[in-house]
Amino acid sequence: SGSFTDDYSIHKTNDDATYCKRAAVQLGYYDDPFINRFVQASSSTNDMPIRRDPEISRGYWARVKAFRTLIDQFLQKAGPSCQILNFGAGFDTLYWRLKEEGAKFRRYVDVDFSSVTAKKIRMIRKPGKPDLVSIIANDSSTELYESGHTDLHGGDYHVVGADLRQARELHEKLVAAEVDFSLPTVIVCECVLIYMAEEQSASLLKYLADSFPTVCFINYEQVNLSDTFGAVMQRNLNTRGINLAGMAACQSLESQKKRFLENGWTHAEDWRMDIVYSQHLPKNEVERIEKIEPLDEKELLTQLLEHYCMVVAAKDSAGLGLDAIKF
Ligand code: SAM
């Protein structure tokens, strides 16, 4: 179901990600001065910590930290004329976090269903601190330009509504966001592809490999869903009405990698998140976050992390060394 519709239960998954990230930020797992601007004002809990189990917060910390590790490597290799596309971005604050830290890039584009981008634009424009609009406008002489309430263009920041399963619509929106297909580009995709049927994500990956000569894709999502714990994860999502249309590609690390290599990408490497957590994230930071909340059953965290993975895929015509982006 839902292959051509704007599936309500799927864009609701963004609310969950936003709440979990906010909970982790409030407890001090990591810094994100912007996340509060994207929590629905309707929630009466606005100033109260939202509880999430400690293994969930540790998992979110690892996810955000792992993305930044890889994105920072891309920025370093690609230089200031690069582009960042965040697919299924939801209310992710990456643009503002990068700007705050002085990261240099030519253009940044958030893409999600138009119902989600319309909400994001309202939240961006809502007066409050920190002021999101002034951070966008800072670098640009142009006014913010809004189109159809679902797309916003301003300076180096764009947010556009598009269904990632519809290549033509996506392409038109990327063109409207002034994406330059010849520039080195990273596509960030955090818990998104699993909601699309395998052939739909395959054709998205093929479209990207065909359109960008120098491109890197960082994918994070569920993996190993065919074991017992994976079956429980699936059932939990199913009971919330969420259809994991893309489960087939999430059966194993091998299938995660294959989807890139079979669709025009020349390099793909994968890591299970339990390995990223225990071997590749800074030990002193792991120690710090593990002190925030006690976790009696360590096994719970390991099991959870075994069911998520990161894949870095690349096509590197300009020879920037994008294949060397790794943990
Ligand atoms: N990437 C964000 C994060 O990690 O905080 C949000 C993750 S949320 C689990 C999944 C997001 O993907 C939702 O915002 C949803 O609307 C978006 N999404 C799923 N399928 C999509 C599609 N076919 N086209 C556009 N967006 C999609």
UniProtKB/TrEMBL annotation:
Reaction(s) catalysed (UniProt annotation): [phosphatase 2A protein]-C-terminal L-leucine + S-adenosyl-L-methionine = [phosphatase 2A protein]-C-terminal L-leucine methyl ester + S-adenosyl-L-homocysteine
Keyword Transferase: yes
Keywords of this entry: Methyltransferase, S-adenosyl-L-methionine, Transferase
Keyword match DNA-binding: no
Lineage: superkingdom: Eukaryota
TM regions (residue ranges): none
GO terms, molecular function: protein C-terminal leucine carboxyl O-methyltransferase activity
Pfam (any one): LCM
GO biological process: methylation; regulation of signal transduction
GO (cellular component) term, any one: cytosol
InterPro entries: LCMT1, Ppm1/Ppm2/Tcmp, SAM-dependent_MTases_sf
Binding site for S-adenosyl-L-methionine: 63, 88, 163-164, 190
UniProt EC number: 2.1.1.233
Functional summary from the UniProt entry: Methylates the carboxyl group of the C-terminal leucine residue of protein phosphatase 2A catalytic subunits to form alpha-leucine ester residues.
Family that this chain belongs to: Belongs to the methyltransferase superfamily. LCMT family.
Name listed for the protein in its UniProt record: Leucine carboxyl methyltransferase 1
Provenance organism: Plectus sambesii
